[in-house]
Amino acid sequence: MVATNVKAETVSLMDKRSALEAEMNAIIARLSQPGAPGLSGGLVDSEGFPRSDVDIPVVRAERRRLAELRNDHNEITEKINRNIQILHSARLENKSSLFKSSDTQTSLTVGNVASTPSQNVLLRHSPNAMDVDVLISRPFAMVDEIADASPAVEDGLQLGDQILKFGNVEAGDNLLQRLSSEAQSNLGCAVPIVIMRQGTVINLTVTPRPWQGRGLLGCHFRIL
What residue ranges are annotated as transmembrane (predicted)? Predict the structure, then answer.
């Protein structure tokens, strides 16, 4: 019963996280559109005056909202990860008890058959095994900037995509340096990546290569 409640809570949390990601992606898209200041661009001109081409109060409000959503996203992700650990532990305990029960019943069956050969003794064990089908990987980076006609766009990446795996990079320290090294060491070669887009896990390949813009992919990853 406890496991069922945890599983239901986890599914609900995943739905909430997907909604947060959708709102975050929408804000990122608005802030990153042509002429917009981006996620951290300056709001004053070269002379120190407020930019006349930007609605500064709106930009500030969107940036504040994005920061709030990121905090909520991190909290929900931590809860999901804790629940996943609980569910996996419960599944392992359930399997362990199943094996022990099966061994005991096998011994009982053999004993009964030996002592009462005329009886058709059949002991069945139908465990109420918990089906843990909630699997989640935690993204470690997000595409927060992407240039038009770049290799990243041509190979299928989109603004707001969350990176679960990029070549041999999955998580750990020095992620930006490792991502850059992975791209440079695979110049002209297809790199398999796994992304999460609107709550859906997608497999892609990108090929780092020179183009008219900056970098080998033409996008920027923000570490989560």
Answer: none
Instruction: Tell whether 32 is covered by a domain.
Output: yes
CA dihedral 176, 179, 181, 187 (to 10 degrees): -140
Instruction: Retrieve residue 83's tokens.
Output: 């629940």
Residues 154-199 have pLDDT tens digits of: 999 999 889 999 999 987 888 999 999 999 999 999 899 988 887 7
Going 6 to 7 to 12 to 13, the CA torsion angle's sign is positive
Angle, nearest 10°, between helix axes 2-32 and 56-115? 150
Give the span between the Cα atoms of 186 and 201, in whole angstroms. 23
Give tens-digit pLDDT for 130-147. 333 334 457 899 998 999
From residue 17, alpha-carbon distances to 3, 10, 78, 86, 213 in Å are 21, 10, 11, 19, 34
Report which of residues 126 and 17 the model is more confident about: 17
Q: Is the dihedral of CA 11, 12, 16, 22 positive or negative?
A: positive
Tell me whether residue 135 is in a domain. no
Number of domains in the chain: 2
Tell me which residue range forms the domain holding 166. 141-223
Q: Is the pLDDT of residue 109 over 70?
A: no
Q: What is the pLDDT of residue 124?
A: 31
- Whether residue 134 lies inside any domain: the answer is no
